[in-house]
Write a structure and sequence with these properties.
Layout (H helix, E strand, L loop, with lengths): L17 H13 L12 H20 L1 H5 L8 H26 L5 H9 L17 H18 L8 H29 L3 H20 L11 H6 L7 H19 L9 E3 L4 E3 L5 H11 L3 H14 L1 H13 L14
Antiparallel strand pairs: 1-2
The site of one fe (ii) ion has 5 residues, from helix 4 and helix 7.
Length: 334
Amino acid sequence: MTTLLPEAGRGEGPEAGDGAREAAFDAAVAADERIEPRDWMPDAYRATLVRQIAQHAHSEIIGMQPEANWITRAPSLRRKAILMAKVQDEAGHGLYLYSAAETLGVGRDELLDKLHTGRQKYSSIFNYPTLTWADVGAIGWLVDGAAITNQVPLCRCSYGPYARAMVRVCKEESFHQRQGYELLLALSRGTPAQHAMAQDAVDRWWWPSLMMFGPPDDESKHSAQSMAWKIKRHSNDELRQRFVDICVPQAESLGLTLPDPELRWNEERGHYDFGPIDWSEFHEVLRGNGPCNEQRLGRRRRAHEEGAWVREAAAAYARKHGGDPGDGDGKAAA
Ligand SMILES: [Fe+2]
Ligand SMILES: [Fe+2]
């Protein structure tokens, strides 16, 4: 939509009832058009997007922590500069996504409050610790790699602001994935101890990365509706399979093995078969019993409290210069 008049939104003509609006919404989704903030949309569509975008935004900013853990100990200036840029990118991804969520009528303060009080989730993967420098490589290669596999189709998501945010996020994620791969390659070709460190990191991050695609299709309660609305384009299992197929040859060229004895090419399916995933672990971590859940949320809350003066100062500055005070005092930015 290009107009700024609220009544000009799709299906919101003077005589359009809910049925007509819903039909216009369904037709737009069916025609692969984008739904924009001023367009009429079903309440459940809006709620699904808020939940998904918020969870995505939270994952970006919580995801800064495990890697930031290694900034001060990066083995060279080059590695430190790359890692700082990468962690900073994740903060930027959080910002794009909170902004996209705000177009749906929720405030950033409200979303952050839900994160801090455990009422909204972030990706479980960030509740695992980063024990060695090689974990930075494994996260880039596998965690950012899984994120890209998930997010590339979101560039075609039916909700315009989310789809557009994803275009830039995906470009940056592909840099993250490559830096992780390159880091692991250097370790894999290094001393035997470095090679072993890289292998150990891949052993620990492989299965949690597969879990990032969410529960199997037959247990995924939101999947079918999200696909009908074209928020999601592929099922969890489809994306997981795509990720495995991409990773196997990459692991070979890295000279590392993936920790799954059942991993083999299936000629008939044209895909790699892989072993069963331990979903009990996934559910435990989701329930808050992962190795770092408390630490991650605790640090996030502290960062938020300690940053209160920055938000207040920004809001005061904006007021003084006649701008929008933004979300600094708890209101949604325009
Ligand atoms: Fe990101
Ligand atoms: Fe990333």
